[in-house]
Design goal:
The protein has eight helices and seven strands; from the N terminus they run βαβαβαβααβαβααβ. The chain is of the alpha/beta class and 293 residues long. It has one domain: 3-Layer(aba) Sandwich (Rossmann fold), CATH 3.40.50.720. It has a seven-stranded parallel sheet, sandwiched between helices. Strand 1, helix 1 and strand 2 form a beta-alpha-beta unit. Helix 3 packs parallel to helix 5. 48% of the residues are buried. It binds nicotinamide-adenine-dinucleotide and magnesium ion. The site of magnesium ion has 7 residues, from loops. Belongs to the short-chain dehydrogenases/reductases (SDR) family.
């Protein structure tokens, strides 16, 4: 048989216990997530597209950025200054595909930075066909009583406000045929009591996918969203989950293991490409089995 068993396509062994300070570095993650560096094959589905990916240095955003380049796109990635080392690796991978890579570090909680980011990406890429927003902040808390306004705000300022700011600015440049891809989570449907703030931002992103798609569809711009289940990434081991949950992370899913970021690549590519020309306002679940409802 040519097809592969999804349960054993990637390891389902326990992950080693490990902790980093947020935002966490992919370079220090053990094992390294598979972001398609060698495993993803492109077929020219985004030939000469110009893409902007936030959170493009590591894990899910990195997988999207690499897949876009392997499909023939030029890619600008945004990340935090502390993540420069991860970002440089992604630049090299994109350039090895013969594509143009633009690195733009900066904090998306800063409103003006969002406008500057979109403008710089547009000018350095020489156009803009897609904005893929992957950056996110997740810090678990044992109880609602452990939140303070600053931590609650940080989650909304990172996960929700940049959608408004980047989309507003991108509309100066995006033309009919362009796409916007947001990143929610199963948490947007099934909120966990240790992630009150995060889950609420991910529900907001689902709502924005729908309302933005209604407004922008009239301009020929499609807006869709990816909702991942548990994926192996720096976010999880840098306060996204309690340490006790790291070793068996993802094992409760129907498929019995955590996802690897490359398993999202095809969905991000599909939503940005002509293949999905009749798809807008949709949320694509890639969850290992958990239902989105
Ligand atoms: P990750 O740590 O690799 O990615 C998160 C990225 O967000 C970081 O690389 C960082 O560059 C960026 N970021 C965080 N704060 C920022 C800020 N203030 N300014 C600019 N950039 C900032 O982890 P990941 O798991 O790949 O997460 C990517 C996205 O996927 C997030 O939105 C996350 O909520 C979502 N997600 C992840 C999972 C999972 O299990 N890993 C599940 C569902 C959804
Ligand atoms: Mg990172």
């Amino acid at each position: 048989m040519a097809s592969q068993d999804p349960r054993t396509k990637f390891s389902n062994a326990d992950f080693p216990q490990q902790e980093q300070q947020a935002p966490g570095l992919q370079q220090q993650l053990d094992p390294k997530p598979d972001c398609g560096e060698t495993s993803y094959k492109g077929y020219g589905r985004l030939k000469d597209y110009k893409m902007l990916v936030t959170g493009g240095d590591s894990a899910i955003g990195r997988a999207a950025a690499i897949a876009y380049a392997k499909e023939g796109a030029d890619v600008a990635i945004n990340y935090l200054p502390d993540e420069e080392e991860d970002a440089k690796e992604v630049k090299e991978i994109i350039e090895n595909e013969g594509r143009h890579a633009v690195l733009i570090s900066g904090d998306l909680r800063n409103e003006q930075f969002n406008y500057d980011l979109v403008e710089e990406a547009y000018h350095k890429l020489g156009g803009l066909d897609n904005v893929t927003l992957v950056a996110g902040h997740q810090q678990y808390k044992n109880s609602i009583k452990d939140f303070d306004t600053a931590s609650f705000s940080e989650t909304f300022e990172t996960n929700v406000y940049p959608i408004f700011w980047t989309v507003q600015k991108a509309l100066d440049y995006l033309q009919a045929g362009a796409t916007i891809t947001l990143t929610s989570s199963v948490q947007g449907y099934n909120p966990s009591p240790i992630l009150h703030d995060y889950a609420a931002t991910k529900a907001a992103i689902i709502s924005l996918t729908k309302s933005l798609s209604e407004e922008l569809g009239a301009k020929g711009i499609r807006v869709n969203c990816v909702a991942p289940g548990p994926f192996w990434s720096p976010l999880q081991i840098s306060g996204g989950q309690p340490q006790s949950k790291i070793p068996t992370f993802g094992q409760k899913e129907v498929l019995g293991r955590a996802g690897q970021p490359v398993e999202l690549s095809g969905v991000y590519v599909h939503l940005a490409s002509e293949e999905s020309s009749y798809t807008t306002g949709q949320v694509y679940g890639v969850t290992g089995g958990t239902q989105l409802d």
